[in-house]
């Protein structure tokens, strides 16, 4: 038996969806443990492209159970739309294959309006939020005033909590943000309608997972975003509002840490970032634009162009440490096919001094200078390689150098967007 956590090892958008899709073949349950519809997985199945924001990408496999854990914040409208789209494409024939924790906190319309209004007033200090209401929903969760899915099933409880929240939220919207308030009736009727649709998917998922572990089933945990966007361990305040690191898999699902056996970090063969915040290896030249266009680096959720840069070993070494990674899956190696030479950031300097690790201070991080080594490219198409030995010598050398610099084995290499364009060096489930 093996239970595996998949985490982003950079700033998100590393290709976790494809890796989860591949590993789902070996799992019984796929569990999403944090974040909301501010994330997106783009999957290529045959000639079809599927984009998911909330539902685990394991839903594309029949016979697997997908669970949205208590650590997620859920927009009912988005969730229902994803279900509708899946069913329209002939998927999710068995509704029992998708379950949502009764303790999931619900994104309300006022969360989204507050999110957008705050960001628009931030000027140069914008965080880069997607405006989906994720942060304000987590604020209410931590402030012990959130509305959970179980509350929607009890109209009396829901009505009481909604009235209490609207009193505060409407004051914030009108007095502080200059926005229009909400009325009780417009939200109450809408969300009671959602509850009728969602009822059959709501369950005590912590108990289900506990029983599945006892029965010897294999669990695959997937997070959203990446390590450097963790609210505690990322480049604060340019982070998301949840625990994206491996520890979040336990708190966000109710599974014990002793039941986690492998932790796989997903990293691109280069690095990208969306939104504001420090990015030492960012490329603002033709090389950066080549990475963006070749890698199709535009957000699955927002469509925003991603900032692109050379691989940063400092970032991934940090991810190895704080997550306890047992392996790294390297994605988009094929995006580097046409480069004559490729640069790798091996460390940082600050005020002329070499740093041993990522600085906690944002002010220092923003002034760090990358230290590069340069390696030759392979100048050939690697998309048909199906074993590590089939890669060109320079491509193999590049992967081995990254492995050495991050001090963690690379267990998977992706050479294209399709499922079959993947080299599995070591399977964490075996």
UniProtKB/TrEMBL annotation:
Subcellular location: Cytoplasm
Required cofactor names: Mg(2+)
Binding, IMP: 13-16, 38-41, 130, 144, 225, 240, 304
Catalytic-site annotation from UniProt: 13, 41, 141
Main location: cytoplasm
InterPro entries: Adenylosuccin_syn_GTP-bd, Adenylosuccin_syn_Lys_AS, Adenylosuccinate_synth_dom1, Adenylosuccinate_synth_dom2, Adenylosuccinate_synth_dom3, Adenylosuccinate_synthetase, P-loop_NTPase
Pathway: Purine metabolism; AMP biosynthesis via de novo pathway; AMP from IMP: step 1/2
Catalytic activity: IMP + L-aspartate + GTP = N(6)-(1,2-dicarboxyethyl)-AMP + GDP + phosphate + 2 H(+)
Binding sites annotated in the UniProt record for GTP: 12-18, 40-42, 306, 332-334, 414-416
Superkingdom to which the source organism belongs: Bacteria
Pfam family membership, one: Adenylsucc_synt
Enzyme Commission number, as recorded: 6.3.4.4
Amino acids binding Mg(2+): 13, 40
Residues the record lists as binding substrate: 300-306
EC top class, as a word: ligase
Subunit structure, interactors included: Homodimer.
Function: Plays an important role in the de novo pathway of purine nucleotide biosynthesis. Catalyzes the first committed step in the biosynthesis of AMP from IMP.
Family the UniProt entry places it in: Belongs to the adenylosuccinate synthetase family.
Name by which UniProt lists this protein: Adenylosuccinate synthetase
Organism: Geotalea uraniireducens
The organism's taxonomic lineage, starting at the top: Bacteria, Pseudomonadati, Thermodesulfobacteriota, Desulfuromonadia, Geobacterales
Name of encoding gene: purA
């Amino acid at each position: 038996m093996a239970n595996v956590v998949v985490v982003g090892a950079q700033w998100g958008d590393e290709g976790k969806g494809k890796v989860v899709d591949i590993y789902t073949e070996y799992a019984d349950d796929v569990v999403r443990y944090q974040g909301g519809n501010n994330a997106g997985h783009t999957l290529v199945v045959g000639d079809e492209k599927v984009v998911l924001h909330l539902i685990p990408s394991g839903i594309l496999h029949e016979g697997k159970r997908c669970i949205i854990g208590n650590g997620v914040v859920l927009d009912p409208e988005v969730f229902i739309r994803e279900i509708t789209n899946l069913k329209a494409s002939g998927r999710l024939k068995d509704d029992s294959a998708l379950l949502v924790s009764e303790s999931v906190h619900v994104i309300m319309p006022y969360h989204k309006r507050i999110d957008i209004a705050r960001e628009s007033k931030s000027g140069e200090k914008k965080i880069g939020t997607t405006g989906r209401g994720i942060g304000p929903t987590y604020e209410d969760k931590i402030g012990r005033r959130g509305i959970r899915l179980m509350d929607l099933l009890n109209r009396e409880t829901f009505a009481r909590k909604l009235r209490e929240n609207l009193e505060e939220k409407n004051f914030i919207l009108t007095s502080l943000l200059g926005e229009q308030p909400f009325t009780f009736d417009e939200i109450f009727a809408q969300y009671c309608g959602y509850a009728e649709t969602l009822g059959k998917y709501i369950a005590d998922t912590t108990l289900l997972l506990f029983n599945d572990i006892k029965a010897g089933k294999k669990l695959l945990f997937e997070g959203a975003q990446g390590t450097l966007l963790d609210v505690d361990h990322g480049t604060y305040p340019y982070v998301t509002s949840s625990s994206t690191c491996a520890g979040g898999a336990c708190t966000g699902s109710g599974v014990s840490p002793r039941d986690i056996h492998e932790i796989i970090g997903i990293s691109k063969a280069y690095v990208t970032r969306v939104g504001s915040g420090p990015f030492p290896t960012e490329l603002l030249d033709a090389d950066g634009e080549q990475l963006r266009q070749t890698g199709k680096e535009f957000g699955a959720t927002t469509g925003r162009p991603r900032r692109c840069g050379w691989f940063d070993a400092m970032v991934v070494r940090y991810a190895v440490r704080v997550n306890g990674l047992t392996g790294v899956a390297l994605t988009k190696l094929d995006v580097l096919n046409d480069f004559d030479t490729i640069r790798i950031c091996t460390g940082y300097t600050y005020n002329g001094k070499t740093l041993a690790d990522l600085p906690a201070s944002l002010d220092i991080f923003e002034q760090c200078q990358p230290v590069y080594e340069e390696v030759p490219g392979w100048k050939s198409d690697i998309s048909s390689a199906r074993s590590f030995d089939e890669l060109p010598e320079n491509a193999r050398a590049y992967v081995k150098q990254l492995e050495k610099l991050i001090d963690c084995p690379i267990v998977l290499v992706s050479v294209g967007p399709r499922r079959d364009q993947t080299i599995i060096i070591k399977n964490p489930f075996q």
